Here is the input.
Amino acid sequence: MASSNSLMDSLFQRSLEDLIKGIRLQLHGESSFISKSLDEIRREIKSTDLSTKSIALQKLSYLAALHGVDMSWAAFHAVEVVSSSRFEDKRIGYHAIAQSFNDQTPVLLLITNQLRKDLNSSNEYEVSLALECLSRIGTDDLARDLTSEVFTLLGSSKAFVKKKAIGVVLRVFDKYPDAVKVCFKRLVENLESSDPHILSAVVGVFCELTTKDPRSYLPLAPEFYKILVDSRNNWVLIKVLKVFAKLASIEPRLAKKVADPICEHMRRNVGKSLLFECIRTVVSSLSDQETALKLAVARIRDFLVDDDPNLRYLGLHALSIVAPKHLWAVLENREAIVKALSDEDPNVKLEALHLLMAMVNEDNVSEISRILMNYALKSDLLFCNEVIASVLLACSRNSYEIIVDFDWYVSLLGEMARIPHCQRGQEIGHQLIDIGMRVKDARRELVRISRALLIDPALLGNQFLHPILSAAAWASGEYVEFSKTSYDIAEALLQPRTSLLPPSIRAIYIHSTFKVLVFSLKAYFSAQDSTSSPLVEESTNYVSSLVNAFTYESISSLVDMIELGLCSLSGTLDVEVQERAKNVLGFTGMIKHKIIEKVTSPESVIEASRAVAFMEDVFSEELGPVSSTAQEKVPLPDGLELNENLEDLQEICGEFLKPVVDSNSNSFSSSEKISFSVAKLRISDQLEASSSSSSHPPESASLLAEHRKRHGLYYLSSQKSDDHDDSNGNNNNTLNEYPPANEILADSFNPKKKMNQSKPRPVVVKLDEGDDIKMKPDGSSNHEPLSRAIQTALMGKGKEKEREKDNPERSLDSGTKEQSLRKDKKTKKKNGEKSSKHRSRRRSDKDASAAKPVDIVDFLL
Amino acid sequence: MTCLIMLASGIHFVLLVSRQGKVRLTKWYSPYAQKERSKVIRELSGVILNRGPKLCNFVEWRGYKVVYKRYASLYFCMCIDQEDNELEVLEIIHHYVEILDRYFGSVCELDLIFNFHKAYYILDELLIAGELQESSKKTVARIISAQDQLVEVAKEEASSISNIIAQATK
Here is the structure.
């Protein structure tokens, strides 16, 4: 029965062509046809007839390759098909294996013998199939078991086989480094092959090997050099150039040596691919060779103005490689780069943008930003945001290193918000706040820009800009003393369209309104005070107090407006908004009462002014920037059980705990850290003189101090406390005992740079420690077994007399090198070769522990 | 994707996609699971098919570069590392197309659809482990036709009815 089924399958089996035609006929529902075919394939593949099986497998490979069908289940059948004696079956089988096997395929062990058999086959095409398969699926075990076969094939007389064997070596070495001992010599010998295909294959292998671990292949430099000079084959030369790019970066003397032949190639009329490889080699590894670099940059210039977009792109790309070390090359091509910003091709535009950003320094930042903003206005959404992001990144790098004029920069940030496509609100908002905290001198402009942003009703509808508005609201509340008209700000903060904002940002709006109100009241009362007793306080601290002079009418209209704006919010669903609105309303209710009574009883004025002073204290702490690593510095307190089960608590607190938890998690949004402006940190010198804090020790501050005392453990320690005690010295309030949480330092001025600036750069507060630079794992460690094997192989070929075994790291003069040196004799000046070699050997013995091997010193002479 | 270790060097994969987004050939030199393969194809054909005719032939993609070129209705794409030479890969693509052209006699998309396995075998002669291994068009053509002959001989033997019956009844 089974056999007759199988007979039917064989006779009426769909061929691959039938399958393809069948799929093409399906206008709809390809997938149902495919799954039907898969059922057929599953049946056919179990057939005892190998050719039926192989056709089924071929169809399955087709479906897997083009329609994403899983074929891992057929792994065993593929192994069966490979064992067929017919070439076609074998080919189908190997193809399926190469396509679907991976290191985890369980039947992998079963093919070792089959591969060995085919590698030893007298039919070169079978050998080639097996080699191709091995190059794709070779595992540690396969590589180990088949090393000797690969070795034999490396010496094959048939170029067709030899070439593929060379290609496979790469995989074998990678999986089984010990194979180096066996095969490396034969591989190296092929570097002198006269057959260009063999040479291409072997150079390709060395190109990959060198990429992973350049140091091990330095001794082969003479062989590569010979190819570089003699070969006229583009493919080979490209690979050799890649090898030298790697070698020259670890052996500078080599760079000098190869610069000439590379220039020679660049001057010749070579193919563009080779020319580009020459350019790339020079800009990436030989950039210290002046003539070569100049020539390469000249060639890049040709690329930049070429009609072919590929060359324009690659030219820009090459410039971006050279930019960090030789900015002049970029500056020279500035026009072409700016022109490329309006290229059709987004890739070219992006590359040009990166280059422009590489050019940015403190002198040209405003000009480049101006150009870029114009492009951002005209560009599509994607590129526009790319431009904005690059400007933001370049300007903020290293605590705004390149920004001198912060007023300009803050207004630039404001401009960005108005670019229609702008979606980088998050970053812009972050920088607005960051600058507010770090750069005192920029605060006036910041408040001005913030006000402009807040009163623009168009911005409220764009959700990407909400973070900017949030930052603007915070800044105008926090630095309200710099504003000209606090009434305007309060009005902007309470405008009806703020209902478009998410609750977390609305909460910030309300809180800022609160700060504005407190400030205005403060100004009002101190004006009252100073009219009655001018000695009490100097109002010069409030720079704009003259403009902000409040009369009884204006202050009560402000209070009325705030009450009116907030009373509708006291019933909002969002608890954060509701609570803040109620806080403010409570305060206004109290104050308003006092202000009205003022006329009749002077005591209530004093009471009110005391209340205002109290609130003022709450807000007077200045916020500083917080280090990104601050959290890590907090030691874990003893007895803190974070993992303890909290279920007991839940049982006790039951239901009313839940909503509280919810509201907490809501408020822990981004707004959290900025909306609570009761600062834990006092940053030195400038605030003390202001307002009442020097006359009465502020209650809030002392509470804070109390808190610090009790929970000192949670606060950050500071090494800089002494400095700050000095600056606070005149001020004997309790805060002095508690040094600021953040270590800050003023940006050190670079005298050379400052010379020609009319306006000095304002102080930018920086945190002492940068972000921790994580130790990068040593890249070479991955390839350690292989590189050790290679180095041993190169050494083993030399005479053993040097006894370098103690120090396997250093591969020294090898036989290969000596041979090749002898061969190279005619091409090089060879005066005193012998003695110099001995000298070098002695030297290398001496600094065997030094990091740099001196093994190719003879070649470099 | 990010955790993938790229074992194969040089070219990571080869894709042939028609203008309508139909996949005509895929060859993976680096280990990608089946699911990833479909994802990669979808992602890349979305990017490449939407590019205009006058743009450059390179796309930056997931930290790699994809070099593509359109021949008639087919896009030939190869994925390489950042440091690899884009122009060289363009030449390899062109080379492959020329060999296909020589083999099929002015190749068209239909040739590749129905002889998809042959397109594979030719590619295998051109690249091994993602490295160019045969740069001579003539040699590739000769090797492929030699293998075709090998198959033909075997086929004649196998396809006789008596052989099939003998196989089935044994």
Remarks:
- The mean pLDDT of chain A is 73.
- Strands of chain A lie at 744-745, 766-767.
